[in-house]
């Protein structure tokens, strides 16, 4: 079952800097939800508050019925959460396949002793996980790179590898931070198809941070626009794109007045 994500009054402060102020919204199970806003609006910080990389100063984060603000990333994986990062951090000297397999650890059954002894059961599970990882790479157009060291791939392709790693966790809630940044146009189309297929086949709720408005318009059911750490508006992508407050936040008040 896809997860529901509920944020209520989430605030985040570093010293005197208010990074997020009273941000709240609900992402329904199975929705594709967009989080947009200008540079520095607080989008990545909000993802960090959901994924356990930051602890909100106040407010609550719920995944289904569980309150999870301040929980560790490993605990959140148990609630079905997986994410990708704006700046992917792969193990550069490991192969692409090994990097993807890191996402499967939380799903492997068996005891540490079984793994140390490499019992037939653990070897079978490992083999099945490798097959799944290769299948994900294939579906995302990266099968050719499976056995190359990650540092031989471009930044854009690292994002694809990270997506495969997140998908191997079989998430119920997936957070994608600028998945289209640095991708050529044709790859953006592949990404849109991938996310659509995820919703149709894998029963997962997806939250996407993206500056690529074509992708946001093509994929999302609903968006929240952040500006200076606050919610500017919530609605459809089309409503956001035509909202004067959003236009002003992106291009500045003077330019917005000139355009009017
Ligand atoms: N650990 C931190 N310590 C201090 N300030 C931080 C920290 N993390 C984020 N910030 C500040 O929070 C603000 C929001 O940053 P954030 O990276 O969340 O923005 P963003 O919306 O993701 O921007 P972009 O579109 O450029 O990725 C920035 O002013 C940033 O400097
Ligand atoms: Mg960011």
TrEMBL record:
Keywords: ATP-binding, Nucleotide-binding, Transport. One of its GO terms (molecular function) is ATP hydrolysis activity. Transmembrane segments: none annotated. Residues 5-253 form the ABC transporter domain. It comes from the Bacteria. Gene3D superfamilies: P-loop containing nucleotide triphosphate hydrolases. GO terms for cellular component: plasma membrane. SUPFAM superfamilies: P-loop containing nucleoside triphosphate hydrolases. Signal peptide: none annotated. This is ABC transporter ATP-binding protein. It comes from Modestobacter muralis.
């Amino acid at each position: 079952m896809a997860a529901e994500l509920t944020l209520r009054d989430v605030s985040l402060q570093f010293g005197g800097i208010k990074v997020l102020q009273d941000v709240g919204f609900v992402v329904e199970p199975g929705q594709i939800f967009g989080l947009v806003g200008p540079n520095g609006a607080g989008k990545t910080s909000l993802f960090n508050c959901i994924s356990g990389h930051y602890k909100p100063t106040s407010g609550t984060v719920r995944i289904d019925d569980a309150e999870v603000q301040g929980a560790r990333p490993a605990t959140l994986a148990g609630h079905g959460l997986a994410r990708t990062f704006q700046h992917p951090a792969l193990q550069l000297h490991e192969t692409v396949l090994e990097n993807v397999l890191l996402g499967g650890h939380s799903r492997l059954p068996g005891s540490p002793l079984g793994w140390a002894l490499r019992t037939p059961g653990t070897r079978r599970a490992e083999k099945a996980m490798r097959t799944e990882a290769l299948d994900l790479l294939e579906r995302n157009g990266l099968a050719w790179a499976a056995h190359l060291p990650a540092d031989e791939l471009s930044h854009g392709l690292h994002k694809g590898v990270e997506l495969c790693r997140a998908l191997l966790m079989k998430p119920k809630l997936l957070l994608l931070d600028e998945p289209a940044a640095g991708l050529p146009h044709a790859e953006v189309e592949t990404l849109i198809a991938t996310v659509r297929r995820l919703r149709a086949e894998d029963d997962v709720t997806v939250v996407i941070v993206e500056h690529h408005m074509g992708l946001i318009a093509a994929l999302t059911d609903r968006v929240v626009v952040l500006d200076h750490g606050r919610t500017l508006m919530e609605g459809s992508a089309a409503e956001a794109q035509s909202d004067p407050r959003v236009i002003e936040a992106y291009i500045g008040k003077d330019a917005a007045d000139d355009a009017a």
